[in-house]
Specification:
Zincin-like, four-stranded mixed β-sheet, 11 strands, 2 domains, alpha/beta
Length: 272
């Protein structure tokens, strides 16, 4: 599936009172939306998607939205509280800063920053594993103006491209498919997608997950090049290549917030 067309690009921020709490939500106009949809986004929090203003009955949806949210108040507040706990856990890990913890291939790696003694133009990253724990060592080049999180992201995207292309090469032939194109992006709401023209898209953040989860997403999208939809035949194809796919998918559902906030540059508690 492709992302819905969202109008406008920047959703508007609104507020609703749920019980004794004032809760903010973002209103998104989706050209493909047929009704009201509520999601808890890792980056934007509570998001309400509705049809465009030109759709009959949707010019001023605030009253309908507020009634809908109040009917589902318990669900909304429970998930927002869970997101707050996940946010605090991400902050405690530190993210993309000296001493912070960032997931890579399913394991947390501590960030160690050092100045590039060779004075190269571009910063570099190397992984180091040892008894004291795994590290991502960032060699910052004096001429490189990118912030630390962008240096790490560039390196992780390269590793993601290698891992995803490797998994595609391993599973495409056995599944009897040949992708026409593979794109590595940073989508907000899915880990991968496939089109009927053979184009595949994957999130670079899959490289932060355990290798099995990345491989399951690759197999899932490759299987769609043979069977569109999620019927029994499709799941048989996936299970034939990835018998543990249910566990891999469950890990991604549980860890979505971890992966989407992995490179947040949280400040030290002392300076916060």
């Amino acid at each position: 599936m492709r992302h819905p067309a969202v109008l406008p690009a920047e959703p508007s921020l609104r507020s609703v009172r749920l019980g004794d709490r004032a809760v903010e939500y973002r209103l998104r106009r989706s050209a493909r939306s047929r009704g009201l949809r509520v999601t808890i986004d890792d980056r934007d929090g509570l998001v309400v998607s509705v049809p465009p203003e030109t759709r009959r009955g949707w010019a001023q949806p605030e009253g309908r939205i507020e009634a809908f949210l109040r009917e589902r108040q318990a669900w909304v507040l429970r998930h927002l509280d869970q997101q707050t706990r996940e946010h605090e856990a991400s902050r405690a890990r530190g993210g993309a800063r000296e001493g912070g913890l960032v997931p890579y291939r399913g394991d947390l790696h501590r960030i160690r920053v050092q100045r590039d003694v060779l004075a190269r133009r571009r910063s570099s990253v190397e992984r180091s594993g040892g008894e004291d724990g795994d590290e991502l060592i960032v060699n910052l080049a004096p001429a490189d103006r990118r912030p630390l999180e962008r240096v790490l992201e560039a390196w992780l995207r390269e590793r993601a491209t290698e891992a995803i292309h490797g998994a595609v090469a391993a599973h495409a032939a056995p599944l009897g498919v040949t992708p026409s194109r593979i794109d590595i992006r940073d989508p907000r709401s899915r880990w991968g997608s496939a089109s009927r023209k053979g184009r595949l898209m994957f999130s670079w953040r899959l490289v932060l997950a355990p290798p099995g989860s990345l491989e399951t997403v690759v197999v899932h999208e490759l299987a769609h090049l043979r069977v569109f939809g999620h019927g029994p035949r499709f799941w048989l194809l996936v299970a034939a290549r990835r018998p543990g796919h249910l566990g891999d998918r469950a890990w991604l559902r549980r860890s979505s917030h971890l992966l989407h906030t992995a490179l947040e540059a949280w400040p030290d508690e002392e300076s916060a």
